[in-house]
Specification:
Dipicolinic_acid_synth_B; Flavoprotein; Rossmann fold; Flavin_trans-like; Dipicolinate synthase subunit B; alpha/beta; seven-stranded mixed β-sheet
């Protein structure tokens, strides 16, 4: 039976296309349930128009994008996914997840998954990972059923506190998470 990946996207707009490309790769092996934060669902940026991302994601997944708290709440209780991915996961969303704040479609998708033991994989993209968000990374690194896609510095000179997940490692991170393991090495 084909496993289903919940694929939630937050507003690290500069990494959005990389995330969509990873979703496309995953769709060759998994069914995809797409989720977008309100910002991603509604905001046009210099990196692309919201409608274009929505259309592309819905074409890849064959499903409508879930983008409200009400639409994502049933994910866990109804067992709609086997693993929940958040990619890109911003520092803001990371902080909310680490501190139990559920006020967006993405944080509800994560909470809904964790409450019944579904593994959650976070693909971080944050400019303050080695600053304010660092404590939240450490907190989640030791949380049951939360797994992080390995990280690297994306621009150590211009953005010395920034870390981004190696998006190409998402498939391996999912496979490890489904077995209850964190993919290593964590920093590359």
């Amino acid at each position: 039976m084909i496993k289903t990946v919940g694929f939630a996207m937050c507003g690290s707009f500069c990494t959005m296309q990389k995330a969509v490309d990873e979703m496309r790769t995953l769709s060759e092996q998994y069914a995809i349930l797409p989720v977008m934060s309100q910002n991603v669902y509604e905001t046009d940026t210099r990196f692309g128009k919201a409608k274009d991302f929505i259309d592309e994601v819905e074409k890849i997944s064959g499903r409508q994008v879930l983008h409200s708290i009400v639409s994502t709440e049933p994910i866990g209780p109804k067992g709609l996914v086997d693993v929940m991915v958040v990619m890109p996961c911003t520092g803001n969303t990371l902080s909310k997840i680490a501190n139990g704040i559920t006020d967006t479609s993405v944080t509800m998708a994560v909470k809904s998954s964790l409450r019944i033991g579904i593994p959650v994989v976070l693909g971080l993209a944050t400019n303050d990972a080695m600053g304010a968000s660092g404590t939240n990374i450490a907190k989640l690194f030791n949380t049951k059923n939360v797994y992080l896609v390995p990280l690297h510095q994306d621009d150590p000179i211009k953005k010395p506190f920034s870390l981004v997940s190696d998006f190409s490692l998402l498939p391996q991170t999912i496979e490890a998470a489904l077995k209850g393991r964190q993919l290593q090495p964590f920093y590359r």
